[in-house]
């Protein structure tokens, strides 16, 4: 697993990045550009491209790799595991993150997805049909326990550094908000126990909508309540302190709600997701940093914002916008192309905007 000494030694091996490129994560440090593995077809060719890109990324200054068991029908996890073994980098230098929640296929999409879920998960007692949302999503402890074991095997590691409960707002489509909080607490209790056993070091919540929409939105979940449920889970598991460490959410120049929408109650009143997370001691990892490639196009970033961003290409400036947001630890970028890796990695050689300059982009 990632360690203090391993990550600091990794940082010290590179001297071409800007001062704030590496940022604190617990007692260690991580790169503020991370490699994502969501996009791409479940094919051997894409596997090889991800493998080669991930190896180069790890050897070039990116020590955050983000995946999920359902990405590319478990193939992304397996490729990440292979790349981690092949890269000339110490395992203790790398923050490895994955997720569980969506029922994954295996190797490729089956001809009858519903039949696959029924035969592989429901009939085997891994999933109770009452716990499924939309027929594809489950955060029940028994299911996450199974998924965590599969992820450890896919990645071929003893410990996962950061294990996310994946898009819990999916459960809101068929359950009350209170019921979803209860399910999250049960999931967190399972993860507290797995953390005590050494299978995960930290856990978090990876989301799409729930933390960046107003409280009256159907997909809303309160960060304050999520933190409270993690504390209750820690008490139930008997751990000394909660292992809840991070959240993941989309953030880019066109999706800045995590900074602009004050949706989460605190002692100081309502706060944005980014501010609340920072004050609660949670690290923030941003997804969709390039808007699935849209922001890499000339003219996609508004001129007034683009002029304030450092970087030679639109992609670099878009990444640096996400890295500039107060409280952001790491901005994830999907990368399966070595050429894109070089361009995206070079964003870290430029300083992001300071807090005041970032604030002024919203005036």
Provide a descriptive summary of the structure in words:
The chain has a single domain (4-360), classed as Alpha-Beta Barrel (TIM Barrel). The longest helix has 20 residues, at 177-196. The chain is built from 13 helices and twelve strands. It has helices at 4-12, 44-60, 75-86, 113-122, 141-155, 177-196, 223-237, 257-260, 273-279, 303-306, 314-324, 338-345, 355-360; strands spanning 22-25, 28-31, 33-36, 64-66, 95-100, 160-166, 200-206, 244-250, 262-266, 269-272, 283-287, 328-334. Helices cover 38% and strands 17% of the residues. The chain starts with a helix and ends with a helix. It is an alpha/beta fold. The mean pLDDT is 97.
Produce the secondary structure layout:
Elements: H1 4-12, E1 22-25, E2 28-31, E3 33-36, H2 44-60, E4 64-66, H3 75-86, E5 95-100, H4 113-122, H5 141-155, E6 160-166, H6 177-196, E7 200-206, H7 223-237, E8 244-250, H8 257-260, E9 262-266, E10 269-272, H9 273-279, E11 283-287, H10 303-306, H11 314-324, E12 328-334, H12 338-345, H13 355-360
Parallel strand pairs: 3-4, 3-12, 4-5, 5-6, 6-7, 7-8, 8-11, 11-12
Antiparallel strand pairs: 1-2, 9-10
InterPro entries: AKR, NAD(P)_OxRdtase_dom_sf, NADP_OxRdtase_dom
Pfam family, one: Aldo_ket_red
Domain NADP-dependent oxidoreductase: 33-208
């Amino acid at each position: 697993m990632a360690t203090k000494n391993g990550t600091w030694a990794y940082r010290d091996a590179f001297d071409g990045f800007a001062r704030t490129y590496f940022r604190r994560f617990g007692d260690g440090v991580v790169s503020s550009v991370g490699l994502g593995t969501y996009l791409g077809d479940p094919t051997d060719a894409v596997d090889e491209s991800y493998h080669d890109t991930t190896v180069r990324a790890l050897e070039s200054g990116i020590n955050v790799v983000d995946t999920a068991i359902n990405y590319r029908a478990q193939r992304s996890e397996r490729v990440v595991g292979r790349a981690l073994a092949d890269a000339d980098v110490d395992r203790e230098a790398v923050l490895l993150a994955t997720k569980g929640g969506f029922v994954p296929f295996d190797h490729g999409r089956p001809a009858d997805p519903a039949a696959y879920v029924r035969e592989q998960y429901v009939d085997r007692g891994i999933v109770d049909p009452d716990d499924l949302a939309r027929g594809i999503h489950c955060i029940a402890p028994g299911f996450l326990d199974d998924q965590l074991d599969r992820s450890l095997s896919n990645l071929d590691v003893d410990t996962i550094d950061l294990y996310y409960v994946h898009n819990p707002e999916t459960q809101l489509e068929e359950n009350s908000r209170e019921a979803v909080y209860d399910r999250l607490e049960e999931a967190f209790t399972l993860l507290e126990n797995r953390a005590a056993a050494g299978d995960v070091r930290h856990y978090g919540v990876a989301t799409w909508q729930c933390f960046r929409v107003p409280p009256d939105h159907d997909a809303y979940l309160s960060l304050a309540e999520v933190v409270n449920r993690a504390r209750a889970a820690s008490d139930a598991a008997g751990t000394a302190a909660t292992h809840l460490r991070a959240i993941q959410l989309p953030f880019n120049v066109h999706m800045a709600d995590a900074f602009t929408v004050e949706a989460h109650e605190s002692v100081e009143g309502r706060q944005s997701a980014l501010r609340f997370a920072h004050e609660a001691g949670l690290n923030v990892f941003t997804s969709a940093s390039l808007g699935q490639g849209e922001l890499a196009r000339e003219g996609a970033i508004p001129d007034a914002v683009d002029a304030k961003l450092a970087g030679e290409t639109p992609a670099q400036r878009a990444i640096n916008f996400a890295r500039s947001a107060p409280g952001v630890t790491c901005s994830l970028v999907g990368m399966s192309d070595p050429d894109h890796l070089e361009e995206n990695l070079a964003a870290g050689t430029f300083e992001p905007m300071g807090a005041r300059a970032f604030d002024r982009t919203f005036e």
